[in-house]
Design a protein that fits this description.
Layout (H helix, E strand, L loop, with lengths): L1 H12 L4 H21 L6 H26 L7 H17 L4 H25 L4 H18 L14 H9 L1 E2 L2 E2 H19 L1 H11 L1 H6 L4 H27 L10 H11 L11 H20 L4 H44 L1
Antiparallel strand pairs: 1-2
Length: 345
């Protein structure tokens, strides 16, 4: 029994990225305790509810970015797709389109951006930084042009159901935005951890040449990751539209940074092949707690951004150091094994 328990915990700890998830979870607990001491209102029911609702969109875009990072790529178009989603859905609703028809059209358009990203990166071998930088500019241009370079008017009372579903409504004491984030996390966590698609995503990020030799369809797998990213960005754009009740052309600015922060803080490797979505939950929570707690502490926005930036850089540096150390050890073991083989021969 003890051996089984020991083997279970060994499997848990050695799971991709689980070590960092455990570490940052302790960090999250410490942060909550510190901010709770600084200002007891931090743990009030109202603030906890608002904090969870604040974390929800960051978690959702973090999930999309995590998929792409695990394949060894990156998606810089996330923030612009958020803005495109917000503006496109709001413009359609202000022109008299049924809110749910507007949602459907918006989702399809955002998925087209994800498909283009997949084609450019996997089919035409463009560096993901360049490909998604281009689509980032395109998506922001679409956000600006759909309403002739103006923010939209209010989406009106006809969209009350839309606004309640994506932001203001609550179910079982939690805001609907939190439930949406949970459902999206549950679905994509299952896909990543329990399906062949998930295994292929890890394989592409770990070693793309080995994945090809194993029969993995690189184009299909990479495109699926970018489609997930665009879908998640679209949902966040709809949440922002529901929050403000209008479309704003600058919606989603810097959200690609927030997505990377949620992913890498939670242990998703920027080098690919490593990370789990449980870590993205913790990473998004740390981002939300820092923003909320520093606000209570009276820190200006600039300081909050500097702190988040430092944490992201440190997280990536630690990942690179750990990966390089493991690579050196592996090479050392292989050299040692070859030497022993030569001596035995």
């Amino acid at each position: 029994m003890d051996l089984e328990r020991k083997n279970f915990w060994k499997r848990v700890i050695t799971k991709r990225g689980m070590g960092q998830v455990i570490t940052v979870t302790f960090g999250l607990i410490i942060l909550c305790a510190v901010f709770g001491v600084i200002n007891p209102i931090f743990f009030s029911q109202k603030n906890v509810g608002n904090l969870l609702r604040q974390i929800a969109p960051i978690l959702i875009i973090g999930i999309g970015q995590s998929y792409v990072l695990i394949t060894g790529n990156i998606d810089l178009s996330i923030g612009s797709v958020v803005g495109m989603s917000c503006m496109l859905s709001a413009t359609l609703m202000t022109k008299g389109t049924n809110p749910w028809t507007a949602v459907f059209i918006t989702v399809v358009c955002c998925l087209l951006i994800g498909f283009v990203n997949g084609v450019l990166v996997a089919k035409f071998k463009l560096p993901p930084f360049i490909a998604t930088l281009g689509t980032m500019t395109m998506a922001r241009g679409i956000a600006q042009i759909v309403n002739n370079n103006y923010n939209t008017d209010s989406i009106g009372d006809a969209a009350r159901g839309f606004r309640n579903f994506f932001y203001y409504g609550s179910t079982l004491g939690l805001y609907n935005a939190v439930w949406i984030a949970f459902v999206i996390w549950f679905i994509f966590n299952f896909i990543l951890g329990k399906t062949r698609t998930g295994r292929h995503i890890y394989a592409v990020g770990s070693n793309i040449d080995a994945a090809k030799l194993s029969g993995v369809n690189i184009f299909s797998t990479t495109t699926k990751a970018y489609l997930v990213s665009s879908f998640c960005s679209c949902i966040v754009g709809l949440i922002i539209c529901a929050t403000s009740g209008m479309g704003t052309m600058d919606a989603g600015n810097s959200y690609e940074m927030y997505a990377v922060a949620a992913s890498v803080i939670g242990g998703v490797s920027t080098l690919g092949g490593r990370g789990i979505l449980l870590g993205t939950v913790i990473g998004a929570s740390i981002w939300g707690v820092l923003q909320n707690g520093l606000q209570f502490a009276g820190a200006p926005v600039a300081i909050r951004n500097i702190v988040i930036g430092i944490i992201v850089i440190v997280s990536v540096l630690l990942d690179i150091v750990v990966r390089n150390d493991k690579l050196i050890r592996r090479k050392g073991l292989m050299a040692s094994a070859k030497q022993k083989g030569a001596e035995n021969a």
